[in-house]
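Why does residue order matter? Because the sequence determines the fold. Keep that principle in mind as you read this record.
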Amino acid sequence: MSPTAIGGQNSDWTDPDCPVARTLDLVGDRWSLLVVRDAMDGARSFTEFQRRTGIARNILTDRLRKLTAHGLLAQRPAPSGRRQEYVLTAAGHALFPVIVTLRQWGERHAFAPGETHSTLVDQHGTVVPDLVPVDAEGTPLDAGTTEVLKT
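Structure:
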């Protein structure tokens, strides 16, 4: 699904010209990102999402419906053929760097020194290095070295 199909014309955007605001309008609540996180970790059924997150059924129903309507999840028949399952679309998979960045920020700022937490590792068991935006030459970027061009 294209970004236009996900965003579309919506008069309810918090800030219609800001990609950050539009993204937050789509996935900025706690439960939506946890559903996306768990879908990336293999959750497929309503029951799995509820068990992993502890989310109330009515809220989970709403979030799954919203994420599906906005093209981040899709439904397909489960292998048993008796129920539907949820799978990430290309747009949903594209949130992976966002989830990783949130995780890495949380590892640095949401835990006390020495406090245990889960760790993201690659297929070889190596801790995933910090994600850092870089310019065309590979120089790290931050808020002091970038600017937003307003429309």
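The chain has a mean pLDDT of 92.
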